Amino acid sequence: MTWDRFKQYRYDDPSLGLALDISRIPFPDDYLPSMEGSIQKAFDAMAALERGAIANPSERRMVGHYWLRAASLAPTPEISSEITGTLRSIKDFAARVHSGALAGPKGPFTRLLVVGIGGSALGPQFVGHALGHPGRDRMQVHFFDNTDPDGMDYVLAQIGGDLVRTLVVVISKSGGTIETRNGQLEAAAAFRAAGLDFTKHFVAVTGAGSKLDVLAEREGWLTRFPMWDWVGGRTSELCAVGLLPAALQGIDIDAMLEGAAAADVATRSRTTRDNPAALLALMWYFATGGRGAKDMVVLPYKDRLLLFSRYLQQLVMESLGKELDLDGKVVNQGISVYGNKGSTDQHAYVQQLREGVKNFFVTFIDVLKDRSGKPYEVEPGITSGDYLHGFYLGTRDALSEKDRASITLTLSEVSPRSIGIVIALYERVVGLYASLVHINAYDQPGVEAGKKAAGGVIALQSKLLAALKASPGKAFTVEALASQVAGDPELAFKILEHLAANGAVRREVRTPWHASTYGL
Ligand code: PA5
């Protein structure tokens, strides 16, 4: 029975080195035919998007990440030449850095610090980890992907005395993201403290005319690369956002682009059974009831794909997690994604997957090629890789036995080409699924809401400090201070506790805790 179903539903494309097994999602045989009308409509919407339609209606933008690996498909010659020209500049820049033609004050750049967040960091982090090699990378890559000062200190300590040989790439499409701005300012301060002119180390990737673009030009940074409004953050890995760090690290970016272009050709097929992206979108739809009723657990059995789960989490949840549909109706859509790697996770949460609450489906990622070095037998005829593969198959069966649904994506190897394929595949799955559930996958109003709320907190902090400064030596309870600045007392309390912990205000602890006082 299982073998028959496996044979019936297995998708295999040897030219892509990709196979897909959907047989362990328990859809009935009439499911795919019943969805044919809906998926054909999704193909129509995708074709219009690729032709340059305004596919992101709330932001009035085209959605052009597919053109990045097939510039000839861009809707205008100007866009095509921007894509090819930028790719050339990225390669020229990386070649100049590698050859030492562009160097720091004490010789060639050997380290790369990428400053960015969300779509401006997760792709480069995933690719850098999947394809990097400590002994062979042209540059050692580090990231500031948060505004946590301790996190930044940690990275700076790793770089240590090599700051003089460090190139910094600051990435922000909008050029106004606070975490990235803070990372850039902290990095610049570290260079200054080391007696270095940071402008001779800094590069920007950003939208033309953004705050970051203007600053980089005014301060005379090494160079700037464009980020176009028709590329969204979480689909930007194959423009300068991802390609520049990858090229600097020494990764074959042509192979990544070629893989993505080949996957795009396969996933443009209008024959559902021949289109792995359509099959995946339909499986997501079946498994979650088209309402996000089940979570997606991503389990790559490959250490190098560890960050794929995190990358996919953003791609899926920021794209599909939407309050309103395209008609403005409240739908609260989305699919929750989490995961890490196998077999490690078998010793963490797989126990619950097998025996606990049945609120998920699994996507296994199985990589056939174990390692590039020589195999080592841990037992006669058996390698560690055989065990890894055995654990994947064992877990898949153990879940099936308990009626837990799973998909398996099999890759022949982890390589620049296969990573390009996987990125393109999932970009298309998300787009097709969004059409099936009638939402805009390409905006992120919720992210903007969080940014605005944080701005309000910082404004309240400034008011609290100003009030304390106006009364030196005087101490106030939270309630007294909050009412003086017309602020929310709960927020004021949290801010004052944080300031006190960092020595910025003086706190007298009283009982009950809300009678404690704060002063300067
Ligand atoms: O995918 C997205 O749009 C977001 O995650 C952004 O990438 C993130 O908010 C960072 O934005 P920016 O690149 O403008 O700094």
Structure overview:
Strands 1-2-15-12-10-11 form a 6-stranded mixed sheet, sandwiched between helices. The chain has a 5-stranded parallel sheet with strand order 6-5-7-8-9, sandwiched between helices. Helix 16 packs across helix 18. The chain is an alpha/beta fold and 520 residues long. It contains 18 helices and 18 strands. The protein has helices at residues 2-9, 31-34, 36-51, 77-99, 122-131, 149-159, 178-193, 211-219, 240-249, 253-267, 276-288, 306-320, 350-355, 384-401, 416-436, 445-470, 478-484, 489-501, and strands at residues 10-13, 18-21, 103-104, 107-108, 111-115, 140-144, 166-172, 202-206, 223-226, 295-300, 337-339, 360-367, 377-379, 382-383, 406-411, 476-477, 506-508, 517-519. Helix 5 links the parallel strand 5 and strand 6 (140-144). Helix content is 46%, strand content 14%. The protein folds into 3 domains: 3-55 and 256-443, Glucose-6-phosphate isomerase like protein, domain 1 (Rossmann fold, 3-Layer(aba) Sandwich); 76-251, Glucose-6-phosphate isomerase like protein, domain 1 (Rossmann fold, 3-Layer(aba) Sandwich); 446-519, Arc Repressor Mutant, subunit A. The longest helix is centred in the C-terminal third of the chain and has 26 residues, at 445-470. It binds 5-phosphoarabinonic acid. Residues 117-120, 172-174, 177, 180, 232-234, 318, 444, 447 line the site of 5-phosphoarabinonic acid.
